[in-house]
Amino acid sequence: MQAGRGDTLTFNSTNANTIKTARLIPPSSTTHVTNIEQRSVAAVVKTVGSKVTITLPKDENLLTNGYYMLFVTNKDGTPSYAKMVDINR
What does pTM read for this prediction? Predict the structure, then answer.
């Protein structure tokens, strides 16, 4: 999926009422022992019924171009499977 800074991503989930947070995490580098580029960027989550809306940060210093794994977590802190997002604008 492609997206830009400040975009909103919307999807339906039967568990929407339990989703509390969303984070974007770049895939790790497997060629180095220390990955100085690793970071976790919070996104804003809103739910209405079964609809989940995630708003990405607008700050290009915080969310640089590239691929990110998008995770949502429930009220117990259990993460979802990642959805790859290409931030390209």
Answer: 0.84
